[in-house]
Amino acid sequence: xxxxxxxxxxxxxxxxxxxxxxxxxxxxALREQDAAIRALQTALQERQARRNALSKEIGRARGQGSDxxxxxxxxxALKDQIHADEERLRERQAELDEQLAGLPNVLAxxxxxxxxxxxxxxxxxxxxxxxxxxxxxEHDDLGAALGMDFARxxxxxxxxxxxxxxxxxRLERALAAFxxxxxxxxxxxxxxxxxxxxxxxVLYGTGQLPKFAEEQFRTTxxxxxxxxxxxxxxxxxxxxxxxxxxxxxxxxxxxxxxxxEAGAAGKDTKGMIRQHQFSKVELVSITxxxxxxxxxxxxxxxxxxxxQRLGLPYRVVLLCSGDTxxxxxxxxxxxxxxxxxxxxxxxxxxxxxxxxxxxxxRARYRVKGERATGFVHTLNxxxxxxxxxxxxxxxxxQEADGxxxxxxxxxxxxxxxxxxxxxx
Length: 424
Fold this sequence. Notes:
By secondary structure, this protein is of the alpha+beta class. It has two domains: 4-101, Serine-tRNA synthetase, tRNA binding domain (Helix Hairpins, Orthogonal Bundle), CATH 1.10.287.40; 117-420, BirA Bifunctional Protein, domain 2. The chain is built from twelve helices and 18 strands. An eight-stranded mixed beta sheet has the order 1-11-12-13-16-10-9-4. The protein has a three-stranded antiparallel beta sheet with strand order 5-7-6. Strand 12 and strand 13 form a beta hairpin.
């Protein structure tokens, strides 16, 4: 949510911010709507004051034995007018709130300009892609003999689901345990077990609602399946005033994630890259405003550490204005090398959302000894997407005989096992 005071005082800045997102100017229309609301509020307050004054006059008139019929008729008329004003005010305020809720975050100044991912800027690379002496397979072809079954999953749930069996299922679990241990033991994140079903206000707070409702799964009870544990972790501080000394807060969670992929028709229909259900270890930070830029770099390094420990080549990309998400001020993507596909693919996004989500959640902080409060800054990142990490392991560590070596970092979580083989 953007600051309405800022919109009033710097409308040109809003239109410049929207233009960077490829959106038309809206400041004039929003200011007109805001002015109309404030005029309605003034008129309502004046009528309410007049009604209160008349009520006192009626009391005096009755006390003096005078006829108060005219005064009472005016009060009755004012009552109807006030009721109509209140209704109009609610309608106009709801319209403005809906418009404001649909506006994306203001991009950071160093986000590069561009319409789509083609304008993203590569910042650095880590690791050298392996040179194979045989044609590397894609993960789904390789995985078929290792316990990766899409056909059975389709019979259970339809397209974009997968079933994993035996050691392959254990490898996915091992990846999650490894990631959680790394982030909690070495990087200072607090592990949290969160609900997988949330209410409307939770998705609104992090920006998935109302704009992206079609991309979510909703239950018959009105709950929503979480698209990422970010929504639950970030909302842990909703409606709260935090002690400045307690910041930053750093949370991590391992959960399934559920996405309708409504806007991804025809994309990555083969394999595990884009699923309706997948698992992810999420990182969330709640910080003071002045600390969020440094925290963004720190969080990205924490996500990178997972790939480095696993020996997976990757690159870090700064997203351009046209590719940065609705809630984000600035986003780094980590893209892992997939030899089967012969290209880098996203495995993590680390975003600084500034105070955008905090305003929607009404999440504040207060410095000790001060009365005033301020909005916290929120950040989130994948640390990592577990399914995509499994994909990267299969493709990068495959051998000509169809087996897959297990990185040393994961072997303690696999009872020392060194390899996955087609025979189990």
